[in-house]
């Protein structure tokens, strides 16, 4: 039986460079965002498993004997690899949880992912645990910032730990700890299964960023962590303009088919920016000085123009770039475009007054804005008392 109060956190992600070009085999750079999802793990009443996800309105509790009975329909016996979340398995979970077929609301998918991961992990590594799990996030959902992957990574780490598949690396007196590389690989593989429940056919980038943190290079299905990435300050701005990634991707493909001689060089240039940015980041010290930033700012400017050429810009993103440029800051969209989010680089010599003025002007446009960092650490185990006051308050209120 689990006997400790602990917390797990995992970061969100942004695409630094390579949006849309990555779909066509070019390099993309994904970086960990220091807005995190937190999972509090507590011993529960014997024979009960509870989960509370206040961000999506989920509060559920089940008898562990009922979950054990269901588990045989979810996980095969004697399999070495993680069981894949197939249609029959998910249908059985929907029936058990009272979720309608085809339901795609965040609360339905979050519940399905929780049940699947709990039953599949416990089937392979131990019994269904009697624990209380509470999840709270600093990440907005549906904004392309990897919120579902951060959730899946936290779940994977917590469930693998309580089932004994990975260690509990937090020693007495420590505030935080991380797992060994082999254990991180196991966390990542199970988080990917949770992402499959939620998204069907994810790339694996988001859960990898949530697991390892820092920055990752992604090309044609291959994910490679970058060596020694500095932590960079940014403004993250959500324009709150909804968009369809599927429609935007299709539009880019149509434009490439229509004007290949024009568009393919643009994709090659985006690829070159991603690779050049990787080289710059890996050459920067852990605590970079202002002179390292001008080239990164130029990359932002050039790539933003390229993304407009691809047809994934939006007036809201143009406004974001204009507002930050008026404060001598450089921005680009991140993710699918067509609205959504943008990122603004904050060199270390940027005055607090300039940052605050930029935030006020962006909020005056109706946008939501956070000052945060990229290159943040991946999944981390915390002593609950070491969490920041606002996180403790949010968890307590939940």
Automatic annotation (TrEMBL):
EC number: 2.7.1.36
Reaction catalysis annotation: (R)-mevalonate + ATP = (R)-5-phosphomevalonate + ADP + H(+)
Cofactor requirements of the protein: Mg(2+)
Domain GHMP kinase N-terminal: 118-210
InterPro entries: GHMP_kinase_C_dom, GHMP_kinase_C_sf, GHMP_kinase_N_dom, GHMP_knse_ATP-bd_CS, Mev_gal_kin, Ribosomal_Su5_D2-typ_SF, Ribsml_uS5_D2-typ_fold_subgr
Subcellular location: Cytoplasm; Peroxisome
Main location: cytoplasm
Keyword entries, A-Z: ATP-binding, Cholesterol biosynthesis, Cholesterol metabolism, Cytoplasm, Kinase, Lipid biosynthesis, Lipid metabolism, Magnesium, Metal-binding, Nucleotide-binding, Peroxisome, Steroid biosynthesis, Steroid metabolism, Sterol biosynthesis, Sterol metabolism, Transferase
GO biological process, one term: cholesterol biosynthetic process
Residue intervals of the GHMP kinase C-terminal domain: 303-358
Any one GO MF annotation of this record: mevalonate kinase activity
Gene Ontology CC terms: cytosol; peroxisome
Pathway the protein acts in: Isoprenoid biosynthesis; isopentenyl diphosphate biosynthesis via mevalonate pathway; isopentenyl diphosphate from (R)-mevalonate: step 1/3
Pfam families reported in the protein's UniProt record: GHMP_kinases_C, GHMP_kinases_N
Enzyme class: transferase
Similarity comment text for this entry: Belongs to the GHMP kinase family. Mevalonate kinase subfamily.
Described function: Catalyzes the phosphorylation of mevalonate to mevalonate 5-phosphate, a key step in isoprenoid and cholesterol biosynthesis.
Subunit structure: Homodimer.
Protein name (database record): Mevalonate kinase
Organism: Atrichornis clamosus
The gene coding this protein: Mvk
């Amino acid at each position: 039986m689990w006997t400790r109060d602990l917390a797990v956190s995992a970061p969100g992600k942004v695409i630094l460079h390579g949006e849309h070009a990555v779909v066509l085999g070019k390099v993309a750079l994904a970086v960990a965002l220091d807005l995190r999802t937190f999972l509090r793990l507590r011993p529960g009443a014997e024979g009960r498993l509870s989960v509370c996800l206040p961000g999506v309105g989920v509060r559920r509790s089940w008898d562990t004997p009922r979950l054990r009975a269901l588990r045989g329909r979810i996980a095969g016996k004697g399999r070495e690899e993680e069981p894949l979340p197939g249609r029959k398995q998910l249908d059985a979970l929907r029936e058990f949880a009272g979720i309608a077929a085809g339901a795609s609301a965040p609360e339905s998918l979050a519940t399905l992912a929780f049940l699947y991961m709990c039953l599949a992990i416990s089937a392979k590594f131990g019994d269904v645990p009697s624990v209380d799990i509470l999840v709270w996030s600093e990440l907005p959902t549906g904004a392309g910032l990897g919120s579902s992957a951060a959730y899946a990574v936290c779940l994977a780490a917590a469930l693998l730990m309580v089932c004994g598949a990975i260690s509990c690396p937090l020693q007495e007196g420590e505030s935080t700890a991380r797992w060994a590389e082999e254990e991180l690989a196991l966390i990542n593989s199970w988080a990917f299964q949770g992402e499959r429940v939620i998204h069907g056919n994810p790339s694996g980038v988001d859960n990898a960023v949530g697991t390892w943190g820092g920055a990752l290079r992604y090309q044609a299905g291959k994910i490679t962590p970058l060596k020694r990435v500095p932590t960079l300050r940014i403004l993250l701005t959500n324009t709150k303009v909804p968009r369809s990634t599927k429609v935007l991707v299709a539009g880019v493909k149509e434009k490439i088919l229509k004007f290949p001689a024009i568009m393919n060089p643009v994709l090659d240039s985006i690829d070159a920016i991603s690779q050049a940015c990787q080289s710059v980041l890996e050459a920067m010290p852990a605590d970079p000085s202002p002179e390292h930033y001008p080239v990164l700012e130029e990359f932002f400017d050039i790539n933003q123009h390229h993304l407009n050429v691809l047809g994934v810009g939006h007036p809201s993103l143009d406004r974001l770039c204009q507002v930050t440029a008026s404060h001598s800051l450089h921005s680009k969209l991140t993710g699918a475009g067509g609205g959504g989010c943008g990122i603004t680089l904050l060199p270390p010599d940027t005055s607090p007054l300039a940052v605050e003025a930029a935030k006020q002007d962006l909020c005056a446009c109706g946008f939501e804005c956070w000052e945060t960092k990229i290159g943040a650490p991946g999944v981390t185990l915390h002593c609950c008392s070491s969490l920041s006051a606002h996180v403790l308050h949010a968890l307590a209120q939940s």
